[in-house]
Amino acid sequence: MEQKTKVNAEDGKQELVITREFDLPVELLFKAHADPEIVEQWMTSKVVKLESKKHGSYQFEKTDDKGNVVFHANGVIHEFIPNQKIIRTFEMANTPFGVQLEVYQFEKLTDDTSKLNMHVIYESVAQRDQVLQLPFAQGLNWAHNRIQEVVSNLPAGRQD
Amino acid sequence: MNLRRDVFQAIADPTRRAILLLVASQSMTAGAIASNFDTARPTVSKHLQILTECELLKQEQNGREIYYHFNAKKMKEVADFIEPFRKMWHERFNKIETIMKKYKSKK
């Protein structure tokens, strides 16, 4: 069966491509990435700030029961073309994964369907592979977006 | 980071991928493997060492000869490697679809 969400990560390259076709008009698909309240719902992180515009910036945060920040990600938006394209950087604080450059391309297929093409470029092949391994190595169920657990379980001062 | 023991580093090299394909069809000695390549014998030995260290190949003594076997189980791990990452995004995208369908019907 053809998979709806595809990840293409070629050997030895510091980039990957994620593609997905949606049963949604492109306007709604785009809105899901631009509207802070909606992003918060599917990211399951608090959207501290999201300025959806060229040269805007954003911050996501997740806290545990005691109010400690267990996940913090931020970046800046380089390009913002409604219903077409978002280019942004993404960085998770206090992790060894570096900064990644993300190019989101939104494409209308029919009036009710659309396609997202995400091109993600990492600082190095090793960093890309580490990010890819994150859900694998931790053996946790990312299917439920337990980012909180994953980040808090990262060994301190990871050596490899 | 010990790159040599990293499976993904191991399969990033085209010669090593060719060796894996070759050995997957039948177990072979280092000499037999090297005879398939124009590369110098010590270079092939180095590739075999790397593939063995990351367990994609297994050595087996047969009389005076050492045969290299393909370890399909380890290769399966490589194939599955991206799957949890893909699933994570798949679930996120499903969520977007659900949220936006509700959003659409509310309007």
Task: Give the topology.
The complex is a heterodimer of chains A (160) and B (107).
Chain A: E1 5-8, E2 15-22, H1 26-34, H2 36-43, E3 46-50, E4 57-63, E5 69-81, E6 85-92, E7 99-108, E8 114-121, H3 125-138, H4 147-152
Antiparallel strand pairs in A: 1-2, 2-8, 3-4, 4-5, 5-6, 6-7, 7-8
Chain B: H1 7-11, H2 14-25, E1 28-29, H3 30-34, H4 41-53, E2 57-62, E3 65-70, H5 72-80, H6 83-106
Antiparallel strand pairs in B: 1-3, 2-3
Helix pairs in contact in B: 2-4
Classify the secondary structure makeup of chain A into a structural class.
Answer: alpha+beta
CA distance, first residue to last residue of chain B: 53 Å
Q: Quaternary status of these chains?
A: heterodimer
Rg of chain A, nearest Å: 16 Å
Please characterize this protein's 3D structure.
- The complex is a heterodimer of chains A (160) and B (107).
- Chain A has 160 residues and is α+β, with helices and mostly antiparallel strands.
- Chain A has 4 helices and 8 strands.
- The model of chain A is unreliable at 136-160 (pLDDT under 50).
- Helix content of chain B is 64%, strand content 13%.
- Chain B has 6 helices and 3 strands.
- Chain B has helices at residues 7-11, 14-25, 30-34, 41-53, 72-80, 83-106; strands spanning 28-29, 57-62, 65-70.
- In chain B, a hairpin with a 2-residue loop joins strand 2 and strand 3.
- Chain A binds chain B through residues 3-7, 9, 11-12, 18, 20, 22-25, 28-29, 31-32, 38, 41-43, 116, 125-126, 129, 131-136, 142-145, 159-160, and chain B through 1-2, 6, 8, 11-12, 80-93, 95-97, 99-101, 103-104.
